[in-house]
Amino acid sequence: MIKTFHQAARRSIMKRTLGSVAIAIALGSVVGTATVAQAATPDNMLVIANRIDDITTLDPAQSFEFAGSDVNRNVYGKLVNFDPMNLEAGYEPDLAQSWTVSEDGKSITFTMREGVKFHSGNPVTAEDAEFSLRRAVLLNKTPSFILTQFGFAPENIEQTIVADGNTLTITTDKKYATSFVLNCLTSTIGSIVEKALVMENEKDGDMGNDWLATNSAGSGAYKVVSWKPAESVTLVSNPDFYKGEPAMERVIVQHIQESATQRLLLEKGDIDVARNLNPEDVAGIDGKEGLAVTTELRGRLMYISFNQKHPELSKPKVVEALKYLVDYNGMQNSFLKGQWQVHQNFLPATYLGAIDDTPFSFNVEKAKALLAEAGVENLEFETGVREAQERIEIAQSLQNTFAQAGVTMNITIGTGKQILTRYRARELDMYLGAWGPDYPDPHTNAGTFAFNPDNSDEAQATGLLAYRNAWDPGPLSGMVEAAVAEGDTDARRGMYEEIQREFQATAPFAILFQKTEQTGVNAAVQNLNLGSAVTAISYWPVSK
To answer: What is the pTM of this model?
Structure first.
């Protein structure tokens, strides 16, 4: 059984399909070209087709979705950041030009870069940085755990996050590896917003949260012109960007679900970049004059999770059985070919402590035996899936293979926002989705998949995947806390390897694949960097 929210999946898909021509015409008119073959976008404009229906807000203190991270990466500066042209170098100074660490290792003092301005023209100050980090803690939205894990709380931020002239000092509750703290500050929640502008737009004590949902107050390479949910995001360049004025004066990201439509628009020249092409459409444009395909390993993982509030899915033998009912290789070698590789661990390849163990394979008889041991018959449950082609195809494959062991999986399809809202509310029996690291440290995934110190509904720790799954990891939470505090790199690597193997054996999660992103581009586009495994896309280095 497949259904959608409001019983409208087929109508939604039909409307999007019928709207493809209208989208092409709209894009053509936006970029000032006709919709005839080989139209071309202007040299100073970048037009991208991508699935952006997961965006729920553009406020960096709340944004926690893939497409939202792409926007914020280009709109806001952070204390430290990544050079998109040299990601292997790791974090580097951004709005902070330097920093020092106290002898006890608990305090980091940042000296702000002089001469950087917000889009409004006002200078970026240490007070703005203080306000931004304090605000993220006070708002306590989904990604706030990235900061509060260091002991920052509403009760102590006036002592632990302090501006003094041109410096900002943060003081953590205990000593952590400095690299871990700085890596966390590269995440979206580390974005520095303009205090005066945000507070001018405060409403009912929300610290500008409602206004920043659709506006921006940054100092980055671009400013938000408009965001139309599940339709488009438009950015305009900041000519005073401290790293230099971007060549692309305008960036338009258009929400287009279907791979075939993205390919058509790319071939016609109505868009410059197609980010969601399936293997068939990738093969169709590969080698065509004027087009190119880029391939980049990403940190994104595809996984399924089983809600531990469900009376049957909370049984360990049932969870184990379902892990043996996934046709991992069959999917990898067919409709996911070249774009997703089998990966059964919560740390992506390239991360410290990543392992390549693949203990699970498709085995119907083993699964049936495990279900029998659990005393479960006629198992039926609901699975939530975002309306995206490869996810729906994965869900349909699972529906088929689960059925071979007598398990009925009903599929509910919705927008990214609809499905994520129910998942975060712990309402879905099973969730099928993707997860990407927030910063390039193994704790970014260990601290979400295998850490959940308070599993009560009242905790509202929606940033933790274990919490969304209503799962108490037991001793794994303590192991995660120990690993993040370990200063010896080799010892820390071994700790994460141990955590992952225990997680594989016991967790109500099945990690399925790691993403290799194949992107169709106009060959004139240069220096487009998707961020590899550690960050989001950067538009400011792009030229044509």
So the answer is: 0.79
